[in-house]
Structures are given as structure tokens and as C-alpha cells.
Specification:
Blueprint: H1 13-29, H2 39-42, H3 44-54, E1 57-58, E2 61-62, E3 73-74, E4 105-106, E5 132-137, E6 153-165, E7 171-173, E8 176-183, E9 189-195, E10 206-214, H4 225-228, E11 243-251, E12 258-269, E13 278-283
């Protein structure tokens, strides 16, 4: 169940509403709340007002917006001086939600440069490959609260490959987002990974990438030239050089067969997933 099938064009009502939610989340994520535990409840009122239109809601995610709502990344662009990206001290959401981090997030992976003012773009069935949303589960009754507990998860189906981080970040600095090259088992470059929390991804660390959707030539996030020694080209969308984006995951040590998100994968070589097994994954 990818995004809503009524998204006929880049100016359709559902796309505009989704873009409005993404902008609200981006702005909200830049704020410092007096009490960190209020992060999810504080945005709950707005979410409840939109729930009737947007299907079900849990911890910052509307099911009708999945997978786009999963493809966020953290950024230090709006981070206050002296603060760092980190996990909340108290549980707030499953790791696949933007609410599972303390710091600014961006949904620019879901925007195009040359469409309007960067609205989310139309989804083609070919974009998603074998990705499917199976289930969103929250252990807290919706009638009482939309704030999840540690038993909440999202279950996805898709192609899943093993990767490892490069020996050193491709980009790193006090005011620069930390980005690693993703490598295969032969240590060949196959894409990039934006760690949600820089300290959670170490050089040579292994992780999994779950393929979600095709990369677009006109993405507002520009593929770094340093990745493959070239700029992205229009032919990359359909040729043997086609690329995809997805979730960087690691095994959940607390639950057998489950995973946790640690980042966003970008510009992954699609052919690397050609022989990958299709699996069902629960992300807590």
C-alpha cells in the first residue's frame, strides 16, 4: 500500500495537504520544547484535526502518507549552536518516525526542484518496486491517546540488502551533515547513508538497506558529485544506472527478527537489489 492513489498530479489536494504537514513537521522539529516528553503530545491536536482526511495517525506518521513520511533525514542546518542530534531521553516514537529524534528534520527527498515551489511529486507504481506497507501498530488505544508506547511498530515488505559504512565519512564537520558512503561486501560504493544520529553509525559498521522508492533526477536534494565522480543525469532514472532511496536499518537487540532505523539511504544502485529476497520487517 504505497501512497494514496488519488495523487494524480503535483498539484492534487492530497499532495498539497501532505506538503503542508511536512512543512509543519520541519518547522516544529526545529523548536526546543521546555519539556522533551511533550514533543509528540504537543503536535497531537493538529494531527487529530487532520486524521479524518489523512486516514490513521501514529507518532508523527499518517498511514496515507507512507512511504513518503518515512523518507525524512536529520539535518544540522537549523540546529542551535552547542546542541547535537540525539535520541530523546524518554521514548517518544518508533525509530522510523521523525519524532524518534531530537533535532531538525527535512523531507526534501520528497520534493523536486522544477515543480512549483518544490511540492511533493507524483508517485508512479514503478517507483516503489516491491515495497508494501503491511501494518502500523500502536499498543495505546486510539480513543485514549495517539501517543505510542515501546510496543508500537510499523511492518513493511520489500527488498533488503546488507551494506557497510565506508572507513570515513564522505562529509563531516561542525556545521556539515555527516554522510557516509554505503559499500557492498566487496567494499564497492553503492550509495550514501545519512545517519539519523551521527554517533550511531561508525566506520565499517554493517547495516541493512530496505529499498523503498526510485530516485528522481530533479530531486531537491542533489546527489553529491563525490559519490560516483559525476553528477546525476536524466538517464539515471530509467537506465541500468537507476538508483533508489530507502531506510538504513540495524537489528533490534531487544526483539528477535525486528529492526530499528538508523538513517536514510540515498542514490543506492538499484541493480544491487535485483537478486535480494523480499522480506517482511517490523521496525520498532
Amino acid at each position: 500500500m504505497p501512497n494514496s492513489t488519488d495523487e494524480k498530479s503535483e498539484y492534487s489536494p492530497s499532495l498539497i495537504k501532505r506538503e503542508n504537514w511536512f512543512k509543519l513537521v520541519e518547522e516544529y522539529s526545529r523548536r526546543n520544547l521546555t519539556h522533551e516528553k511533550d514533543k509528540v503530545p504537543a503536535i497531537l491536536g493538529l494531527a487529530q484535526a487532520m486524521t479524518a482526511e489523512y486516514d490513521t495517525y501514529c507518532a508523527g506518521l499518517f498511514t496515507s502518507q507512507i512511504p513518503s513520511s518515512l523518507l525524512w533525514r536529520t539535518t544540522i542546518e537549523f540546529l542551535d549552536e552547542g546542541t547535537v542530534l540525539r535520541r530523546p531521553f524518554q521514548y517518544s516514537a518508533p525509530s522510523c518516525s521523525w519524532a524518534a529524534v531530537e533535532g531538525p528534520v527535512s523531507f526534501d527527498s520528497q520534493r523536486l526542484f522544477n515543480i512549483g515551489e518544490g511540492l511533493n511529486y507524483e508517485h508512479s507504481p514503478d517507483d516503489f518496486g516491491d515495497f508494501t506497507l503491511l501494518q502500523v501498530f500502536t499498543n495505546t488505544p486510539e480513543a485514549e491517546s495517539l501517543t505510542p508506547d515501546r510496543k508500537s511498530f510499523i511492518q513493511l515488505r520489500g527488498r533488503f540488502i546488507s551494506c557497510q559504512a565506508a572507513p570515513s565519512p564522505l562529509f563531516e564537520g561542525d556545521r556539515t551533515d555527516t554522510i557516509f558512503t554505503a559499500m557492498d561486501r566487496k567494499e564497492q560504493r553503492i550509495g550514501l547513508v545519512h545517519p539519523d544520529i551521527p554517533t550511531e553509525l561508525k566506520p565499517y559498521q554493517g547495516f541493512f538497506c530496505l529499498e523503498i522508492r526510485k530516485e528522481h533526477y530533479a530531486s531537491k536534494d542533489i546527489m553529491p558529485y563525490e559519490l560516483f565522480g559525476r553528477n546525476i543525469e536524466l538517464e539515471d532514472e530509467e537506465s541500468s544506472r537507476a538508483m533508489v532511496m530507502g531506510l538504513a536499518l540495524v537489528k533490534d537487540d531487544e526483539r528477535i527478527g525486528a529492526c530499528k532505523r538508523i538513517g536514510l539511504c540515498r542514490w543506492m544502485i538499484r541493480s544491487c537489489f535485483a537478486n535480494a529476497e523480499i522480506v517482511d520487517i517490523k521496525i520498532y
